[in-house]
Design the sequence.
């Protein structure tokens, strides 16, 4: 596995020679030492990306040829999918079967989807008032921004790279990407595959290291024109401030969430149990759109909870590389500690801990799938996301649609949401009124590369995926001709 910085088409040590350990969350062992990039490394990577954009073959390439390279890259990722999924499992604790299908599978689909966009980026002709007796023609062009920075989180290391990088590259930009410090390995493997695909040097640069140093320098750098970030709301605010003060970089932010899932008594109960569990426990709860809060109608509440607990007891917790495992370790120790503290807070505030809430008695950073009921709106666990396998359940009175909507929207976040009901009118009424960038009706976690993804309010702005994502990495130029 590559373990060094990837700058200007080459793997090399950090300029100051520093490195750090990346840890396997399954047993706490060191996987390998990884280069710890410095500010000087950021400056070299940005210079390489700028050179590649201004003077290299990438900037002069036909869009269709650029698309061919991205298709080639997707094909190589597919050829190496088992290897990428294994690295992801070892480095992030993702269950291998999920890593193969989602972490890696959706990354491949994302590159293919955006490769297809390369030769379809086009402007318009616009009728304007003529300067008689002369005539005028106005047309617009969509142009790449230049050097872009991408800063991604640790929950879906390769997939978050793909969601942002594929749109960025399809638009014709070059990039410097900082993977999360705790999960750098699939990004570095991706860099290796990009060379095999024939992506010119300097187009893709990957810098493992700290947010405080590498992320901050990317935010401040005068030659970067756009920064795409996925992570927490407080860090998003810091990035936006730095981007504004430095050179007014364009920014897109996909931040925290506390997504409500409303389950009505007229739902398909089997599906609501299955999907409700998936909404919380998918990828060990390390999922930005995870249902942070379930609202269950009073008449089915008790049955719903007992069904969920029954299913949790069947979940197999264990080594993520074991194909029969359902639930792997949390991503890193600091996160596990935070989750345990979150559960303690829930108990202290008077919520009922129905199941779990503790670390699993085995090596590694395993957390029991957890269920809280009797959660009141003022409680910490009702307001803040856990980012772990913690189901937070509140009751609502039978038939009180507007009341539960008010509670569901009473949050500063607005990333995703869900509703389960077999009444189509109720489903449409609720989906229109939920203040979230995504609404799932009778499903959950159903993202697709063609569908735009992003939040409202303090969950950020800008979109990943779909045509909307491409526009995040383009600028519009208007040209007016007189003849």
Sequence:
């Amino acid at each position: 596995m590559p373990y060094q910085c990837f700058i200007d088409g080459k793997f090399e040590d950090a300029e100051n020679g520093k490195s750090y350990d990346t840890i396997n969350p399954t047993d706490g062992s060191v996987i390998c030492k990884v280069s710890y990039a410095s500010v000087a490394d950021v400056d070299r990577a940005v210079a390489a990306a700028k050179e590649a954009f201004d003077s290299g073959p990438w900037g002069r390439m036909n869009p269709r040829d650029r698309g061919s390279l991205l298709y080639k890259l997707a094909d190589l990722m597919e050829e190496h999918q088992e290897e990428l999924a294994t690295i992801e499992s070892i480095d992030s604790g993702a269950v291998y079967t999920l890593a193969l299908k989602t972490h890696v599978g959706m990354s491949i689909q994302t590159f293919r989807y955006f490769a297809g966009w390369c030769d379809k980026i086009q402007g318009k002709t616009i009728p304007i008032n003529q300067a008689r007796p002369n005539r005028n023609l106005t047309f617009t062009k969509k142009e790449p921004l230049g050097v872009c920075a991408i800063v991604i989180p640790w929950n879906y290391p390769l997939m978050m790279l793909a969601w942002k990088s594929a749109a960025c590259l399809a638009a014709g930009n070059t990039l410097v990407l900082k993977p999360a410090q705790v999960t750098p390995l699939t990004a570095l493997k991706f860099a290796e595959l990009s060379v095999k695909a024939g992506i010119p040097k300097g187009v893709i640069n990957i810098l493992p290291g700290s947010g405080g140093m590498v992320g901050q320098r990317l935010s401040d750098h005068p030659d970067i024109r756009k920064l795409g970030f996925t992570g927490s709301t407080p860090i998003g605010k810091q990035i936006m401030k730095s981007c504004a003060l430095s050179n007014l970089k364009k920014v897109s932010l996909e931040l925290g969430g506390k997504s409500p899932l409303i389950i009505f008594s007229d739902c398909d109960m089997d599906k609501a149990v299955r999907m409700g569990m998936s909404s919380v426990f998918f990828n060990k709860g390390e999922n930005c759109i995870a249902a942070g809060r379930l609202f269950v109608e009073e008449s089915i509440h008790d049955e719903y909870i007992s069904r969920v607990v029954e299913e949790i007891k069947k979940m197999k917790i264990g080594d993520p590389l074991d194909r029969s495992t359902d639930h792997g370790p949390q991503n890193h120790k600091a996160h596990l500690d935070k989750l345990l503290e979150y559960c303690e807070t829930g108990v202290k505030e008077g919520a009922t801990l129905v199941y779990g809430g503790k670390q699993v008695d085995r090596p590694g950073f395993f957390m029991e799938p957890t269920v809280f009921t009797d959660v009141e709106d003022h409680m910490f666990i009702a307001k803040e996301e856990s980012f772990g396998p913690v189901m937070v359940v509140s009751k609502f009175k039978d038939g009180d649609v507007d009341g539960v909507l008010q509670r569901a929207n009473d949050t500063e976040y607005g990333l995703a949401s869900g509703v389960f009901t077999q009444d189509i009118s109720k489903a449409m009424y609720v989906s229109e009124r939920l203040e979230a960038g995504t609404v799932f009706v009778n499903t959950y976690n159903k993202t697709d590369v063609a569908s735009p993804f992003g939040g409202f309010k303090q969950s950020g702005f800008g979109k990943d995926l779909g045509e909307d994502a491409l526009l995040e990495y383009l600028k519009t130029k208007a040209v007016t001709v007189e003849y």
Q: What stands out?
A: The longest helix spans residues 96-115. The chain has two domains: 5-255+458-482, 260-448. The chain has a mean pLDDT of 98.
